[in-house]
């Protein structure tokens, strides 16, 4: 007699056994289409090896705490609320065309084999110059890549 699969059936949206309720604190996490309404932060693509004009080697303890606080704040907002934030008449957090970032950053994406992830990166603004760069690939997950404390990935001042 063939053996039956005794694993519980799961809710594909949450990968949980049917009958278990999602915690109230996570209500609204997923949209009907399975995308995340609220950002989730992933560090699987984090470029820890780069040691040039930007990178994790430049992250101070004070910046780390402020960056963690920013991610906690952003994790409570919807992607729409995040993109609607304005500072100084400009969007605070937004997509940025890969074609407009500095050549060194474009080259680094190629070195990391990340140049096929799309033509847009996303960046969170921490303060006047501090930026967290990565990719939001349409699933609502932000894949952190670089810490840019001095606005070097996309310089706005003539250098």
In short:
The protein contains 3 helices and 9 strands. It is an alpha+beta fold and 159 residues long. The chain has one domain.
Tally of DSSP β-strands: 9
Strand order of the biggest β-sheet: 3-9-8-7-6
Helix content: 10-25%
Strand content: 15-25%
As for the number of domains, it is 1
* Main beta-sheet annotation: 5 strands, mixed
Per the principal axes of the C-alpha atoms, what is the gross shape? Answer: globular
Topology as a string of helices (H) and strands (E)? EEEHHEEEHEEE
Mean pLDDT: 85
The whole-angstrom Rg is: 19 Å
Which parts are unreliable, with pLDDT below 50 for 5 consecutive residues or more?
none
Question: How would you classify the helix and strand content by structural class?
Answer: alpha+beta
Count of DSSP-assigned helices: 3
End-to-end span in angstroms? 75 Å
What would you note in describing this structure?
The chain has 3 helices and 9 strands. The protein is globular, with a radius of gyration of 19 Å. The longest helix has 14 residues, at 61-74. It is of the alpha+beta class. It has one domain (36-148). The strands form 3 sheets. The protein has a 5-stranded mixed sheet with strand order 3-9-8-7-6, with no helix packed on it. Helices cover 18% and strands 22% of the residues.
Helices, strands, pairings?
Layout (H helix, E strand, L loop, with lengths): L9 E2 L4 E2 L22 E3 L18 H14 L4 H6 L1 E2 L2 E2 L2 E4 L5 H9 L8 E6 L5 E6 L4 E8 L11
Parallel strand pairs: 3-9
Antiparallel strand pairs: 1-2, 4-5, 6-7, 7-8, 8-9
């Amino acid at each position: 007699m063939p053996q039956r699969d005794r694993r519980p059936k799961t809710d594909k949206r949450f990968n949980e056994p049917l009958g278990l309720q999602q915690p109230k604190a996570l209500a609204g996490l997923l949209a009907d289409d399975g995308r995340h309404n609220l950002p989730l932060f992933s560090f699987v693509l984090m470029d820890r090896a780069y040691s040039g004009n930007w990178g994790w080697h430049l992250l101070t303890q004070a910046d780390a705490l402020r960056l963690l606080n920013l991610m906690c704040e952003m994790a409570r907002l919807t992607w729409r609320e995040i993109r609607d934030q304005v500072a100084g008449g400009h969007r605070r957090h937004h997509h940025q065309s890969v074609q407009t970032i500095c050549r060194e950053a474009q080259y680094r994406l190629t070195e990391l084999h990340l140049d096929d992830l799309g033509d847009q990166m996303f960046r969170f603004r921490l303060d006047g110059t501090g930026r967290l760069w990565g990719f939001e690939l349409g699933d609502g997950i932000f894949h952190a890549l670089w810490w840019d404390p001095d606005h070097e990935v996309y310089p706005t001042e003539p250098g």
